[in-house]
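Run: sequence + zinc ion -> complex structure.
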Amino acid sequence: MFHGPGDLRREDLPVPAPAQGELVMRIDAALTCGTDVKTLRRGHPVMIPKVPTVFGHEFAGTVTAVGTGVAEFREGDRVVAANSAPCARCPSCRAGRPNLCEDLLFVNGAYGEFIALPPRLVERNVVPLAPSLPAERAAFAEPLACALLAIERARVEAGQTVVVFGHGPLGCLLGMLAASRKARVVMVGKAGWRFDRLKHLGFAQWLDASGAGDVVGAVRDATGGRGAEVTVDATGRPRCGSKRSTRSAAAAACCSSAAARRAPRSAWTRGERTTRS
Ligand SMILES: [Zn+2]
Ligand SMILES: [Zn+2]
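>> structure
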């Protein structure tokens, strides 16, 4: 249970029973997202408007109980659920932009053994898993969906150069997705244990932004002076150099919690914003 910044406690709670339209899931895998870390440090007025509350928001598991009126799922189904669901009624939702929903429902509780999913989430954002997909991988669905949408909106294609600024989990997902589209990926990060571990994975060239070198110049050198076709800012910092590394008529995607603060969020596109110039 989260009682406020810096105060996360292990507590015994009753296993929830599903109300009408709800599902109860046993959590098989839960992830710790950067947002969880930030929330633990300083709270989160949108995702966690009041405390104490159950905590954690990226998870996959197995349905253990089904409320009346739920026809799509049964006990024993393995599923992944988003941690939010748009209302489908507000002007933004009706305009086809659920990421700007004015009444987004948030669900927390990934760190528990069981979680009850409310009807709106069950209707819109619970997805069955293939038997071959382990829960530990399926739990990546929410951050992976943000990265997928960014790569799709940036129209990444084979042969392009994609520069990703930031080598946190989302930056890496973005880089790996671009590489899976056969783009040439350049990851810009800062030296340290994470940088050292990741650079051996082989999906990208790596540039150390903490060195004395000129990163923007290095990107331009590597692209015949033209710059990258696509740059992605996954740093959360306003002046990371992504725009200056981008050639004209190219795409720059912002995929960070800083962008999320400027643009409201959605179930599957939270924190992602793309611009074209
Ligand atoms: Zn997250
Ligand atoms: Zn809405």
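>> summary
The first helix runs from residue 34 to 42. The chain is about 25% helix and 25% strand.
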